[in-house]
Design a protein that fits this description.
The chain has no helices and eleven strands. The chain is mainly β. The termini are far apart.
């Protein structure tokens, strides 16, 4: 059974940092690519970043490029999203999701973790 569990969200001041974790079970990271999405109140869900299962290639939305870094630890079967220089507009529920490639609409989703950037 495929399962994704996010953690690491919270309240942080503008300019601060958070690291989100996505712990996967039921599959290994060399089979499924992992993406991070976010959804703010009243807004559509937005793709933030993705790491490919095949070669570890990474992709970022323009809005987070240079501030966020996605990485994976195959031994722990966990993907991380390091978020630096956070802005109030980064406030959202962050979800990790899995599918065969970063181009696919993900099949499997976690429950989400809240990130709030506010002074």
């Amino acid at each position: 059974q495929v399962q994704l569990v996010e953690s690491g969200g919270g309240l942080v001041q503008p300019g601060g940092s958070l690291r989100l974790s996505c712990a996967a079970s039921g599959f290994t990271l060399d089979i499924y690519s992992i993406a991070w999405f976010r959804q703010a109140p009243g807004k559509q869900r937005e793709g933030v970043s993705c790491i490919s299962s095949s070669d570890g290639s990474t992709f970022y939305a323009t809005s987070v490029k240079g501030r966020f870094t996605i990485s994976r630890d195959n031994a722990k079967n966990t993907v991380y999203l390091q978020m630096n220089s956070l802005k109030p507009e980064d406030t959202a529920v962050y979800y990790c999701a899995a599918d065969r490639t970063c181009r696919a609409t993900p099949t499997y989703w976690g429950q989400g973790t809240q990130v709030t950037v506010s002074s």
